[in-house]
Amino acid sequence: MDYRVRGFTRDVNGVKHYIDHEINSIQNFMSEDIKALYHMDGRERLPGKYLPYQDVAEGFSI
User: Which EC number applies (predicted)?
Assistant: First the structure.
């Protein structure tokens, strides 16, 4: 799962929620059930070098 932090996100009602703290890993914000679906290698991606769909949930194909 590749991700980029863009400063805010919206909830299901369209309300913006701003990020006002440092994020060192998206894994800190994932439930254990979601984490169990993925293999996460912990490597940091270099800026401009990310590959979409590199980490894929087990049992799914793209």
Answer: 4.1.1.50
